[in-house]
Structure formats: C-alpha cells, structure tokens
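Hi everyone, sorry if this is the wrong subforum. Our group has a chain we'd like a structural model of before ordering constructs, and none of us has done structure prediction before. Sequence below.
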Amino acid sequence: MSWRCNFYVRKLIVNTILAWMMLASATVAPAWSQQAAQGALSYGAPLAFGMNPEQVSQVLGVPLSYVGGRPGDELLLAIPNVKGSALSIRSDGLYLQFRKGRLSGWKGDWGTIRP
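Answer:
Right subforum, don't worry. Here is the predicted structure as tokens:
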C-alpha cells in the first residue's frame, strides 16, 4: 500500500510543479509579446529611410524627444513605453538621426533585454 501512496504523492508534486510553470509562463508571456512588438518596431511597421519625424513617431507609437542638432538636421530619441510591466526592464532608447527633415539612420535595439 505504501507504493500507491508514494505514486500519488509523486503525481501530486509533479502536477503542482507543472501548474506553477504554466502559471509563470502565462504571467511572463505578455511581457515577451510586448517586447516582440517593440522589437518589430511597433505593430510590424518597419522604419524606413526618408520618413519624417511625425511618421517615425506614429510607427513607433511613442513621442520623440529632442536631443540635439539644428532644425531639420537633428538627433531625436524614442523611449519605449513598457506600460508598467514589472517583468520588462527597458531603459534604453532608440536614437534617430534626421538630415534635411528625413530619417537618415537610427541606433538602438528594442528587441533585446539587458540584465
């Protein structure tokens, strides 16, 4: 009779561990999906050379902050909006270089997490 009890206790432990793992993955999944959307540059619309600042802001879904440069030839910063997710650590921004009012380059990666 002891082997049956052992079997049921082991089964209970395994099922409990599996339930915890499923619960943990369900709470982490929204953070991963949000990062994936940001990694794809917001809703799948890619950045393209020649876009103006308003188009870039719309594609990224965040406002752009002025960093430096003359009007038209400026460096702007887009900071990702993590919407209060405690599991998502995002402090890096996406630096956008504009020449003659058009996007000429960018630096930064929203698709990776820094420890």
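For your construct planning: The first helix runs from residue 2 to 39. The first strand starts at residue 64 and ends at 70.
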